[in-house]
Amino acid sequence: FVHSARLDNLASCFAVVNALLDDDAALEDSEKAHIIALYDNEEVGSRSFSGAEGSLLNEIIERLLELRPSQANTVSSRSAFTRSSFCISTDAAHAVHPNYPDKHESRHLPILNGGIVLKYNASVKYTTQSTSGAMMKKLARCAGVDIQEFAGRNDTPCGSTIGPIVSSQTGIESADLGIPLLAMHSIRETCGVADMYDSVRFFKSFFHSFHHIKNALVDYSE
User: What is the pTM of this model?
Assistant: First the structure.
């Protein structure tokens, strides 16, 4: 296990950065744009220059479109760009506490070292939908990574992530997932080492294989 403050959300930052750096050479000739956005101020609402409600990601998309000489930077080209893209909002998930299992839904009990957690919310506090969730499960199988699911109780308030902000501002399909933590927001948060390794492997698979999985899902001839 790992015990530390700020595992939420430095653990996810560590996983995605290492996944990209580990496969830097393999991705060098990729035609896809692989972007990691490490936003500030998520815990206080994201409404800042460096937060998810800032303009940075949309500006990056516009600059990427300007680098494509075959297409003008028009509304239609931007729409095609974003609709073929995908975003993973990776924030930590609440693991079930052994002393308070009633705080979780009985069929949604993420445990430490049980795999990364795919998160759902009926009020769209998380962005995972049926299609994006199915693609994440397929990706996890390809990576050999266990995956758990979390949905908050109807009678219990639930926090949110930057996923809904980014997805609604850009028009990019998204899913929410992350590693499970105990004592989130405390000075001694706890996560599982196996989950950290799985998270890195999952994101390496995402950078390599996701476009194949998405194309297979929408191409019914396969």
Answer: 0.90
